Amino acid sequence: EIGNPLTSISSYVQILKEMDFDEFTRESLEIISRHINRITAIVRQMSSFTGSGDKGIEEKKIDDIIESTFQLVKYDKRMKNIKVNREIPDDLPEVRVNGNQLEQVFINMILNAADAMPEGGELTIRAFSKQDSVDIEISDTGKGIPDENIEKIFDPFFTTKERGTGLGLSVSYTIVRGFGGNIFVSSVPGKGTTFTMRLPVNEE
Q: Which of 169, 177, 120, 166 is nearest to 143 (CA)?
């Protein structure tokens, strides 16, 4: 039901990519194509959900996934007035994750931060290596999360937004826990929020 329309859309996008367009249009078509590939990968993962729990898990470089994530979200209107700071060392150890799933987690986290800054602000993503993990911090200068909501932030369907399912953070938490990692949140109302994602390094 989903695969057939995706195939048709992908075919037309490939045709358009072969035509002579300006740089912005070519780049936009490339981003559309990457989103289609992401949806296709997600559909495949859902189809094989009852299979091996580590399906698609492999060694990945965090900086590559962060870079590809920002390429996917940079034209989202929520990012328009947001200054992005990236502090990602080149020598981080690789982690064992499903790249498509971790990319989805980053998208959820980044756009969630953008939603907290509707008038603009700063988003900082930094990563650093610890003894047995890589930590990734995503911080915003938004309105913050009230203390009474912190413990519920990862609950399915919990949301304070007028529009939204309340599933983005819950799904992100489940994905990261599936990698053997964890997500923590700290927030100061009126100043901003920091989500810290902890991923175990490959010990082999």
A: 120
CA torsion 135-139-144-148 (nearest 10°) is: -10
Q: Give the Cβ contact number of residue 128 at 10 Å.
A: 13
What letters, b where the CB count within 10 A reaches 16 and e where it falls short, cover 138-177? bbbbbbbbeeebeeebbeeeebeeeeeeeebbbbbbebbe
Residue 192 to residue 18: CA distance in whole angstroms:
44
Q: How far is CA 157 from CA 37, 154, 164, 196, in A?
A: 27, 9, 9, 21
Multiple choice CATH, 54-200, 3.40.50.2300, 3.40.50.720, 3.30.565.10, 1.20.58.220? 3.30.565.10
Q: Which residue carries 């949301």 as its tokens?
A: 159
Cα atoms in the Cβ-side hemisphere of radius 13 Å centred on 69: 23
Of residues 67 and 42, the one with the higher pLDDT is 67
Contact call for residues 123 and 132 (beta carbons, < 8 A): no
Q: Mapping DSSP to helix (H, G, I), strand (E, B) and coil, where does residue 82 land?
A: strand
Mean pLDDT of all residues in 25-31: 86
Q: Where are the domains of the chain?
A: 1-51, 54-200
